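Encode chain A's predicted structure.
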Amino acid sequence: MTGLQDRLTPEQVEEFGRELDELRQRIVDDLGTADVEYIHKVIRTQRGLEVLGRGLMFAGFFPPAWLAGTVALSLSKILDNMEIGHNVMHGQYDWTRDPALSSQRFEWDTVAPAENWRHSHNYIHHTYTNILDKDRDIGYGILRMDAEQKWHPYYLGNPVYATLLAIFFQWGVMLHDLEVDRLLKGERKWSEFREVRARIARKAARQFGKDYVLFPLLTGPLAPLTLLGNATANLTRNLWAFAIIFCGHFPADVESFTEEETERETRGQWYLRQILGSANISGGPLFHILSGNLSHQIEHHLFPDIPAYRYPKIAPEVREICERYGLPYNTGPLRKQLWSVAKKIVSLALPPRPKPTSPTLEREHATAA
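Encoded structure for chain A:
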């Protein structure tokens, strides 16, 4: 963990912040028709893929049709989750005043209720990014993802917990808002989550009923195949979302911070924390779209309410600013970032190694005694 104060002088930090503020303002001033056309095109594509996928399930007795339908439905769910739902609910299109693009009204195709997610993600995570004991996305309450987290034998299961979280990621995000770890420690009371639980129950029932009851039944005798196709599409979306999100937050060299070093944080220091606490994933245009442009996690943490499809265009400028100030710009292909995350999950499952004792210090202590 490297202190924020060790990176730049106070004057440099504030100048750094002013440059990023100016970059953000240029984007805001340029928002317009092209941004609206882009998100509407993505929405039309997502809906078309869903209709195609659902329709092909009626021909599920023919394996190529079932496979094509499952692929189309998987892509539909990925687009809905990543490039549409996540970004719309961040308020990236609130400026359009379009009710369909309102961050407060949008609901996505996942079991996590939008209202719960907006609090835990938009507010908690993006305000307290990578601050230990404040940002609950560090380990999602079940994983040890930072060396500063106190080790416990429970964490020997880190790789198992991570695998299960990846497979059932939408359910993990849903339960995240219940703060189960704090309930078990007695830090929160079950009664405090009455409204959160009610929203979870309603949304989970609706999603489960849609994917595993209604649509399978509509295909009659093909119901088992349709159920399998829907489950496969959800699994694909879960694994993809987990990979993209973890690769943006937990590769090697992504830093965490203490509450003490972020007290009375200025705008420039907040920007600096976002840079040091994020990582990008390199790739082509289609990869960026399917990732919801969270492959540009650095730019997203800097400007979470700016339309995400703008991130690839401003990334070179953000990187150039970082280079001028001698700051790291953590990026790499998916395989590299994913391998880095996997190694961290495994290494942090093990107890910390005792720090080597200096013979000189030992002699000094012995002499003093």
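DSSP finds 15 helices and two strands in the chain.
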